[in-house]
Write a structure and sequence with these properties.
two-stranded antiparallel ribbon, rod-shaped, DNA-binding transcription factor activity, nine-stranded mixed beta sheet, D-Maltodextrin-Binding Protein, domain 2, DNA-binding, Arc Repressor Mutant, subunit A, 298 residues, alpha/beta, 3 domains
């Protein structure tokens, strides 16, 4: 059985007329009849009963028609889905983000993407520093919203800043210095600094802010996540350095004191592997570029 014979058979079964089937396929009636005859010979039984005035499916022909119609429709749907996937119209996009990030920073981008491409299945999940970085590099994620210094030395990663900020010293409102005006980094030279142990580049960035201000922390306390870091700060163990992308930025229990200088600047970036062949990533990339251009023009 060839695909051409199957198409001819299904069309004749649809019209119950060999001439109309020939017109449908832009061929001749004898050509249709010949292919159906060859198919019946191969199968060993008749598919149609023919009289001078009518064509009807045999019981076996009806069974084959019903079954192959469903398969043909499914095959057509599979091919169409594959076509749409190749164009990025249909597919999947796995997005990760640092779980302590204020999601309002990137949620508008995700909403816009899903509105533009409603047939792309988008999933997103929050992770800690280490998991987010590794999942992006190891291809478990298509896109990550990540702090710029996390993958700045990874040549396989492309990234664009979607939110720019600066480092801030974070203190509890009960800290003795919390009520003072015009504080600077130097005012905390005698403090213990709590840093994230899961991000070596983040630790280096924090310590570089201290060194730029002329001191090294008298004590460095390592903690795994921003959640635990902020608990240390609230409990009075020391201070931390975070940027304003964190969801703790508006928490009234803490004061964020901005660190001045170019080295203190940071950003939340949309990042993906340059060799990711998922068409949905290319569409997301284009959306990021368009959004940045619009923001620049505005």
């Amino acid at each position: 059985m060839t695909s051409l014979q199957l198409q001819y058979f299904l069309t004749v079964a649809k019209y119950l007329n060999f001439s109309k089937a020939a017109e449908h396929h832009f061929t001749t009636q004898p050509s249709i009849s010949r292919q159906i005859a060859l198919l019946e010979k191969e199968l060993g039984f008749e598919l149609f009963t023919r009289t001078k005035h009518s064509v009807q499916l045999t019981p076996a022909g009806k069974f084959i028609h019903d079954e192959f119609s469903l398969l043909y429709q499914k095959a057509a749907a599979v091919l169409e889905k594959a076509r749409q996937t190749s164009l990025g119209i249909d597919g999947k996009l796995n997005i990760g983000y640092l779980q302590e990030t204020n999601i309002d920073i990137f949620l508008p981008l995700i909403k816009r993407f899903t509105q533009n491409y409603p047939r792309i299945d988008v999933s997103f999940e929050g992770y800690g520093f280490k998991d987010l970085r590794e999942k992006l590099i190891n291809r478990a994620l298509d896109v990550a919203f990540i702090l710029n210094f996390e993958v700045e030395n990874a040549p396989e990663i492309e990234q664009y800043a979607v939110f720019r900020s600066a480092g801030h010293v974070v203190v509890s409102v009960s800290h003795p210095l919390a009520g003072r005006d015009a504080l600077s980094m130097e005012d905390f030279k005698d403090e213990s600094f709590i840093v994230a142990s899961e991000t070596p580049s983040g630790m280096d960035w924090v310590l570089s802010q201290c060194l730029s201000s002329g001191f090294y922390p008298k004590k460095v306390i390592k903690s795994a996540t921003s959640e635990s870091i902020i608990m240390y700060v609230e409990s009075g163990f020391g201070v931390a350095v975070m940027d304003s992308s964190t969801r703790f930025y508006t928490n009234p229990k803490f004061r964020f004191i901005e660190i001045k200088g170019e080295t203190a600047k940071t950003s939340v970036n949309a990042a993906w592997r340059k060799d990711n062949t998922n068409p949905s990533v290319a569409l997301f990339h284009n959306l990021i570029i368009k959004s940045l251009e619009e923001n620049s023009a505005g």
